[in-house]
Amino acid sequence: MRQLIALTLLACASTAAELRVSTDFEGGSAKVEAIDQTAHVIRFMPDGDPQRGWPCWWYLRVDGVAKDERVTLSLAGSDRPSRNNGQNTSKPLAPSWAMPARATFSTDGKTWLHTPPGKRDEARILYEITGTGGPLWVAWGPPFTPRDTDTLLAEAEKKLPAAKSFELARTREGRPVRGLRVSEATIPKPPGIWIHARQHAWESGSCWVARGFTEWLVSDDADAKWLRAHAEVFVVPIMDVDNAATGNGGKEAAPRDHNRDWDDNPVYPEVAAAQQRLRALVKENRLAVFLDLHNPGPGDPTFFFVLESQLLKEPMITQCHRFVDFAYGRISKIKPLIPMSNKPKTTGASYHPLWRNMSASWVCMNGNPDTVSLCLETIWNYENSTTSGYGAVGRELGRATADFVRDKSAKPRE
What we know:
The chain is of the alpha+beta class. Helix content is about 30%, strand content about 25%. The chain contains 9 helices and 19 strands. Helix 3 crosses helix 9, helix 4 (about 220-230) packs across helix 9 and helix 7 (about 315-330) packs across helix 9. The longest helix is centred in the last third of the chain and has 23 residues, at about 385-410. It is globular and about 70 Å long.
């Protein structure tokens, strides 16, 4: 009898210690190749559908890791042919897009930390994490899902009566694309500021910058109070809600992604709805600032702006450079260091055949003569590219926006 009880307990312990991987939650995505239960190694790759964007995003939950036990996640790049420049290719995406130097993990699904630097092993990268006895969530970068948008907007409304959530549109799959309007301005037509993030669903860092901006905007910070009193601000934390929810990459999705869809006949209802709201601000001659938040390539060493110089005329050129100077002055002073460049990059036909259909390009062509239209690229492959680092960038981006609007309002209209 004692032997039977001992065998039963041993079997239960064995079952409890077995590593299990799941992705059946919002934003989850991973293709498990094998699990070595003895060596505690999980071999996997991204599982995104290339027709729904670059398969570089991954996000999984690991159960069965005992306290103080080490588990190794062995990641390979996707083996599926990807799309690029609006066309199907016969080659997989370069693995570096899926392989951050440090993965992101959480023990509660809320607080996100970096793993130690991964170790390259031929075509793979190995991330080691020590268990706490509970589940581990591990991802390419800090996840930010549509549910996180709901939480962010609810907290903003609770903190500030002037913060009002709105539904921008329903996606093609029926999900709400939600945003926040904040204004305490008393003049009838204050300067309009529009900020949106995550037109490419894998670029989760951009959402955390938007979150940092939003939390600052509804705070008691003196600059935030000033901006609320002198402008009307709109923030949309996730544009590509469908792919953010389903764990797909979004960029280069068929027939085109959100940031190649800004023409007279958008594929995506949320793009059409954003255009409608922006046109209304332009019609009233008050679209002051438009910011599109993204993540760049794995080798980009700094935050930087993208400025569509081929499409700009004065006074838009001067206003854009003035905004960049204000942002650089704020973001470059963040501690710990967040590298920031004050030299904007540009795109053009050599970057993508649909470069004129990107949102910042569309606003350059359709905005007011002095509208600032910029894309901010959020460096992600860096030791301080964390939720706190991204949040600090969002906060300082907000202060830079206040600096710009204040400076502009103090000068005669050019």
